[in-house]
């Protein structure tokens, strides 16, 4: 009897192990298909329309602006902000360790560390994930193997790294990212990105629309709608950035 019970126990453990291995294999397969859709250009440029709603909107004359976004992979992001009838009102140069901003409207400039991005939206946003948001790639918060579940729309990949909980939703036909979110279960901070309007560029699909929400507190929510167009890939770009000597430095 003891031998039989022991054999049953071993069988159950082996069955559970097989199921876990199957789930892990499926998760890796889905991850590989998602990775195949991701963009890794050396140079990237896009024109964009940006609409912002949130606490930073106070004091701004308008909440929708035009943007010229340029990127050199893993090195810098350059953004020029313009408004109708006026032209360029701001310019930013962001690297993995610094943020530089020129405010032409108020004739000011700022020289800050990359932590300024976190201070701006009260959420831990770094250069790597800023780049991922612009390219429509997965957010990076640790290297934890995800748990995968299938549903009628596709797949959900969930993983947890300490207090951070990651959730990615992809469709089952082309494995495009539909939504992704990261939530800090301790501080209750959350970053959500919804991607849509996939269209081919150089025979590869690219999401032209981003709905970005960064929530630090119940009453502090930043909404950004980013609509991208006129995208060019791997054309050598320039990133001009010079500060007028008459401008006053802003300090945060």
How many distinct beta strands?
14
Can you tell me the number of structural domains? 1
Report on the biggest sheet.
14 strands, mixed
Percent in helix: 10-25%
| Gap from first CA to last CA | 73 Å
Shape: globular
Task: Walk me through the structure.
The protein has 252 residues and is an alpha+beta fold. The chain has a single domain (36-249), classed as outer membrane lipoprotein receptor (LolB), chain A. 21% of the residues lie in helices and 48% in strands. The protein contains three helices and 14 strands. The protein has helices spanning 2-37, 115-121, 127-135; strands at 43-53, 64-72, 76-83, 87-95, 98-103, 108-113, 147-150, 154-161, 164-171, 177-184, 189-201, 204-217, 220-233, 248-249. A 14-stranded mixed β-sheet has the order 7-8-9-10-11-12-13-1-2-3-4-5-6-14, with helices on one face. The chain is globular. The relative contact order is 0.17. The model is unreliable at 1-20 (pLDDT under 50).
SSE blueprint and pairings:
Elements: H1 2-37, E1 43-53, E2 64-72, E3 76-83, E4 87-95, E5 98-103, E6 108-113, H2 115-121, H3 127-135, E7 147-150, E8 154-161, E9 164-171, E10 177-184, E11 189-201, E12 204-217, E13 220-233, E14 248-249
Parallel strand pairs: 6-14
Antiparallel strand pairs: 1-2, 1-13, 2-3, 3-4, 4-5, 5-6, 7-8, 8-9, 9-10, 10-11, 11-12, 12-13
